[in-house]
Amino acid sequence: MLIDDVTFIPLQAPIPSGKAYGMSKSLATARATTLVRLKLANGIEGVGECWGMPQVNIAMLPLLKSYLVGTNVHDIEHAFASMLARHYHFGVQGPMTWSISGIDMAAKDAAGKLLGLPVHRLIGGKQSATVQIYASGGYLTENSARDFEPQIEAMAKAGHRAVKIKIGVSPDNDEDRVSIARRILGPDVEIMVDINSNYTLDLARESITRLAPYKIGWVEEPLAPQDLAGYELLQRWSPVPIATGEALYTAFDFKRLIDRRAVDVVQPDLSLCGGFWQGKQIAQLASMEHIRLSPHVWGTGVGLAAAVHFVASLPVYPHASNIPRPTLVEYDLGDNPLRDAILVNPLGQSGGAIVVPDEPGLGITIDWNAVERHVVR
């Protein structure tokens, strides 16, 4: 049960020239992440995924290994707590927490394989055999006027019943994009929008006023993550639910937001917020304040598998047999070889749902030959 080694593998998949896509603040020219490989003394291996710049994560690894090698895999959360306590000058926002996140995923994967149990059984039990997804697309591109409608048409053709699109260029442009999406998708598809923190409070209000008639499911990251007072004012005013959290770290960050009830939907990213270790605490905080949760996912198939296990383990409280709106997992539609191609058995969605794996650990198998093709040298 002792951890024998931890390695980080930097991955990058360039996006072809002219095909960059992304958000209101920038477009992505590559998809990059850090794959974690954690090995136990008996040879069992677990995998995880870290957000952030791979080079920075790799620089953190010697410090982290000094706490982890020789630690019982079931005791790893105590090692994480020691890291945050002793190195408090680093803060929780940044590479130490990114790295902890991926290592925790890998540790839970290894522990599940050791015990013959899926991760969802280790972190709360299996509440559901499937999890519902929303399709995340409608990206801004180098030529959004040309590319937007085909993205939405593809969503409609695929039959997605809940989708998220990128906005945040301007309130005028927001309404144009949402009106197009509503026309193509029809009246019954739930549409969420993502501003990626590009607005101030006044601009967010102007945009939401324009979008409310289109029956928007939530407005994501309308403000900068540091603007807690702005979120509190916006949530009190907005006729549309407010969602945020992908740029928040550990339960400490989320507690400040949740205590003020400045949000309607919290969105922890397990590859960034502290893995399952912190994800469980964030979910408990949200549950105690009766706030919805929907994990952010924008990485590899490893992070997607982690989010599926996480959501499958969450109680449906305060609901019972009637669940008005299920907890949704983000399912990225962007061109991303790191999501499916590095897995032997990728978690595909069907009918708006993903079947929760019951195999030990995360229930995924890495194609190491495919991984090798994307390693950054």
UniProtKB/TrEMBL annotation:
InterPro entries registered for this protein in UniProt: DgoD-like (IPR034593), Enolase-like_C_sf (IPR036849), Enolase-like_N (IPR029017), Enolase_C-like (IPR029065), Mandel_Rmase/mucon_lact_enz_CS (IPR018110), Mandelate_racemase_C (IPR013342), Mandelate_racemase_N_dom (IPR013341)
Annotated keywords: Isomerase, Lyase
Keyword Lipid biosynthesis recorded: no
GO annotation, biological process: amino acid catabolic process
Domain of life: Bacteria
Domain Mandelate racemase/muconate lactonizing enzyme C-terminal: 145-241
Pfam families: MR_MLE_C (PF13378), MR_MLE_N (PF02746)
Protein's UniProt keywords contain Isomerase: yes
An example Gene Ontology molecular-function term: magnesium ion binding
Gene3D superfamilies: Enolase-like C-terminal domain (3.20.20.120), Enolase-like, N-terminal domain (3.30.390.10)
Protein name, per record: D-galactarolactone cycloisomerase
Protein's organism: Bosea thiooxidans
